[in-house]
Amino acid sequence: MNNTATELWSKSCKQLASILSSDVYDRWIALIEARTWEGDHLQLAVPNGFYQHWLEENYLPLIKDAVATVCGQNLDISILVEQIERKTTTEEVEPPPLPPLDPLPVGRPPKPRSPPMI
To answer: Is domain 3-86 in CATH 3.40.50.720, yes or no?
Structure first.
């Protein structure tokens, strides 16, 4: 990963977040990662072909505009499919333990409930 590409993409993401709804941004843009920026070419990465196709068909012009606004020039942008490490929280890695179950009393059936009075 190229630090300059990462910085450019980070600033471009701020630009995109100001334009798009938070739902659209979180669903389609937030998962994109920068790979390299060499000359007039920026490589971005997504986790699978579905994202790649959807972004190229629906958001690539908007992504190009945001990048151009940030860096001051039009770049060729390619979106690669690449395994991206998913950022996890502690809760996702290790779920909390379940509370102990209360044992049922042995030998007595539970008391029936009275119907509600109207």
So the answer is: no
